[in-house]
Specification:
This protein is mainly β and 313 residues long. The chain has one helix at 59-62, and strands spanning 2-14, 20-41, 44-55, 66-69, 74-77, 85-96, 103-114, 117-121, 131-136, 139-152, 168-182, 193-194, 202-212, 217-226, 229-232, 241-243, 247-257, 261-268, 275-279, 294-299, 304-311. Strand 13 (202-212) and strand 14 (217-226) form a beta hairpin. The longest helix has 4 residues, at 59-62.
Amino acid sequence: MYVLRTLTKVLNSSNSNGDPLKINTTKNDWLPSLNFTYELNAKTNLRFSASKTISRPEFREIAPFAFYDFNLDAVVAGNPDLQRASIGNFDVRYEYYPTGGELISASVFYKTFKNPIELINEPNVGAGSRKFGYSNAPSAQNYGFEVEIRKNFAFIDSAASTSFWGNLLFFGNFSYIASQVDLSNFGEAGTGTRPLQGQSPFIINTGLQFNEPKTNIGFSVLFNRVGRRIAYVGNVQVPNIYENPRSILDFQISKKFYKMLDVKFTLGDVLAQNLTFYQDMNNNKKFDRKGGDNIIFDYSYGLNASFGLSLKF
């Protein structure tokens, strides 16, 4: 399948003299895609896909002016010369369906990036202040694997359709991603290679879900964690700013009454770990709060609880 996509962006603003500024970019892109599925047997599939996609800059990313971001406590500037990123995607996936509603799968993938858009910590800013902006890295690549499982516990009890275990479902996926940005022609950010900005080396999502159709009682436990990633790209003057990993644990219990009223109680972010952005000054690839790392932002989160009612007519 081929898709021709035209991108047109028009941004009207004014400079300090009040003269109008206009950015008008029109790009035509062919976006081919190929999907192939081979059924090995009634329960197993082998899939292959290849496609080309693009990542367009947002309007504020190409805006020809700077603005103050209160969350960052810094100035963020747009870049009118920012180019769209072109991405090549390749994926091979093995799928096994033991029973209805269950899944075990594994996949490998490879992505190539031309002109990936990154948020950078701009150099040559006065002491005690920061300025962030957007830039295109020359090229990058991602590759890795993903495993996914969705499995109930019916095997524990022979009366699975009516038992607690038959209504309890485990689900989870784990992804490992190796990313690499070529800095050979990207002088502001140094030399060699580094991970892609915003890309975690691993992602974990897992949980338990229970639904009892007779009593209409359900509950879920969800867990999420991502690996350390570059939040803001540094340069030859300023080190990268990293986002420290944090684990997120959520609980929810629900009950339906008379097929009309849904009641839900949720406990969110039970672990309430801090979200910390820092510079790895000793370059040991982990956060040392008392070991000399430079803390840029440190957000403290608390446990949040909510109670909801919904009525269907």
